[in-house]
Design goal:
alpha+beta, Nonspecific Lipid-transfer Protein, Chain A, 6 helices, about 20% strand
Length: about 140
């Protein structure tokens, strides 16, 4: 049985938690900010898009994201996937290179830069899994 979000509102709420975990983590956050790889994620099944970039001087946290394509930056990496694939990925249950090969994740732009971020973001898997366990058990992958 597929694990599903109750809708776009819950999906955004959960993904905002993931991005906040990464942005505020004392190890991950600065590394992601310094890597400075603007990304655009499209979640086809929920008709949602989020653009993420490194925080600029004067902005809180290490990452900045907006649920819109109306942004003043250009993404270096584009990824398109289902909300279920995103949920599995952030729980550490989706092998990204394999998912790209199987077209579960469709990519564009500098994929090498995106793959280089995986070791940096690996700690979010356990953090997000703990959030799912405590607050969203129906999303456990």
């Amino acid at each position: 049985m597929a694990v599903e979000f109750s809708g776009a509102k819950e999906f955004r709420e959960v993904m905002d938690r993931v991005f906040t975990l990464m942005s505020e983590d004392p190890d991950m956050g600065p590394k992601l900010r310094d890597a400075d790889v603007p990304q655009r994620f499209e979640f086809e099944d929920l008709d949602q898009v989020v653009n993420i970039r490194a925080a600029r001087d004067g902005e809180d946290g290490c990452l900045h994201w907006t649920w819109s394509d109306d942004v003043d930056w250009t993404s270096k990496v584009q990824m398109r996937m289902s909300s279920q694939t995103a949920n599995r990925y952030f729980q550490g249950k989706e092998n990204v290179p394999l998912a790209i090969a199987k077209r579960k994740i469709k990519t564009g732009g500098d994929i090498k830069a995106a793959l280089a971020l995986i070791p940096i973001t690996k700690p979010v898997y356990a953090q997000f899994s703990a959030v799912v366990e405590a607050e969203y058990p129906h999303l456990k992958a």
